[in-house]
Amino acid sequence: MSKKAINIIYWISTGLILAMMLFSAASSFMENPDGAKMLAAIGYRPYVLHLLAVAKVLGVIAILTPGFPRLKEWAYAGFMFDLIGATYSFYASGFAFKDWAFMLVLIAVLACSYIFYHKRLALKGSVA
What we know:
- The chain is an all-alpha fold.
- The chain has one domain (3-124).
- The protein is built from 5 helices and no strands.
């Protein structure tokens, strides 16, 4: 695969997942009656989402900041824990598959970003 193709796939997948993380973080601080009902249904308190929102913003910054490969690894891991935890919370709370299926798409996009992050490192001769 060419360097150009690797970079394009990396930036598209990374842009999509980081945009979704920022959207999720921002919406955690907005008043939303439907969001409050969803939180109650899965048993979370609003302060949990506020904590996760701050972590998501920090993760986005870590992934976009040049250098700091170990910090990027932690950010990717944190995003994966967040998405898997959210997916399981919906599943365990009895939500229908259609209500949490999109989470699987986000997990796949995050995995694509991570895989192509490492392909870019290999092209540069760096190993994280």
